[in-house]
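Q: A reviewer asked whether we had any structural model of the full assembly, not just the individual parts. We don't, so I'm hoping you can provide one. Inputs are below.
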Amino acid sequence: MAAIAAARSESDLLDAKGRFFGKKGAVSGILKGVAGLPVEERKAIGDLANRARAELESAFDARLAGIREQERGRSEGRERIDVTLPGRAPMPGHRHPVSQTMSDILSAFRRLGFSVQCGPDVETDYYNFEALNFPPEHPARDMQDTFYVESGTGDLVLRTHTSPVQIRTMERRKPPVRIIAPGTVYRSDSDITHSPMFHQVEGLAVDRDITMADLKGLLTEFCRMTFGPTTPVRFRPSYFPFTEPSAEMDIRCVLCGGSGCRVCKESGWLEILGAGMVDPMVFGFVGYDPEEYAGFAFGMGIERIAMLRHGISDIRLLFENDIRFLSQF
Ligand code: DAH
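A: Here is a predicted structure for the entire assembly that you could use as a starting point for your response.
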């Protein structure tokens, strides 16, 4: 019984069986010995021996069944596939907040009748400055200090704004023109609200009889679509070399609602874009007759608008690509 209980595998068990039940085994020996006993003992001993054999055999069978069951359990543990486990959840990404804001702005202007135009990131001095009425030594160039590209002639720059697309478009097309130009721009500027690379959307409309009222109406509608239908807006006089008159547009501070806070510098207003009526000098560069046509233009920074919409205080967060930050949008 002890040998059967100690058997750990089927072959252990068969060994034990051989030792006791085999030809020279103990059980066989006892059974054979019964025949040589005196008649009066033969029956009692024979019965005992048979009972012992039967008990051993059934212990053996039970142990064999137990070992087989254990073995089956073990191999199932190794090979089992649990079809009820949930699958691995995919991690779908989503668009970056700057891309989301960009595409919202573009679709707002598309609905207002504008089509999209693009221009190169590496621009000539002519398109980036000169044809926009920044003469070579003009101090307005200082506001847009940029990265110059070594080109031999020294006149290639990373564009500082998307305004050059105005010139490229007007050179190719006769009015009416109604375009928006999204893209990357560069300035040698870096702090919590400025990044050396950022995005702008430019707008240009040229036609007969365009007035500043069209500009104000369009941009007011755009702000309602982007910041909510009751957002107050205002226009302030400003200066850009390529527009005359020029304006900057503000919206009521989205954070304090106008009562004054750190973000709006206690003014209650947030500047969101520059705009104006296209300067006749610019029409001169592209061969449009300023007596016949008038136009307006505007330009805005996308990161700034994304920051206002989401209450983001440091522009650098938008470029570090930390998943913990990006997954909030
Ligand atoms: N290009 C200007 C800038 O980056 C923004 C701008 C102002 C664009 C007035 C315009 C405009 O089209 O009319 O600072």
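A: Points you may want to mention in the reply: The chain has a mean pLDDT of 90. The chain has two domains: 2-74, 97-326.
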